[in-house]
Design goal:
The chain contains three helices and three strands, in the order αβββαα. A hairpin with a 7-residue loop joins strand 2 and strand 3. It is mostly helical. The protein has a domain of 40 residues. A three-stranded antiparallel sheet has the order 1-2-3, with no helix packed on it. The N and C termini lie far apart (67 Å).
Length: 126
């Protein structure tokens, strides 16, 4: 099913684009192997170690975008679930009974085979 997308106004697009662009920090940093050095690298002063999976905090526009995507997903799920043909209570009970009976038959068959093979191996080893 095709997604229904709303057109964003030009102001909202500009705000979303501005919030995604990362801001430059005032301090110049040299990065090597996820370690941040300040100033002259030859001094070897380590200010902090950075986790590569968490580089920076998420921008507010990015969080809002993720929430909107999540809400859109749940709306689509709701629409699709309305299209499902659900079985009646009687059909569900019948199908459940068929499954239980088949499981009992298969387990009995496997039990008999297991018992027979274990006795056969016991006789061959003695």
């Amino acid at each position: 099913m095709a997604r229904l997308q709303r057109k964003k106004s030009l102001d909202k697009k500009k705000r979303a684009a501005d919030s995604v662009i990362p801001k430059k920090s005032k301090v110049t940093e040299n990065r090597t192997d996820n370690v941040v050095f300040s100033g002259n690298v030859s001094k070897g002063r380590i200010l902090s170690k950075r986790n590569s999976s968490v580089e920076s905090k998420a921008a507010p526009g990015k969080i809002k975008s993720l929430l909107n995507k999540g809400m859109q997903f749940f709306r689509e799920v709701k629409i699709e679930l309305k299209k499902v043909t659900w079985p009646s209570r009687k059909q569900t009970m019948q199908f459940t009974l068929v499954v239980i009976i088949l499981v009992m038959i298969i387990s009995f068959f496997l039990g008999v085979i297991d018992y027979g093979l274990s006795n056969l191996i016991r006789v061959l080893l003695q």
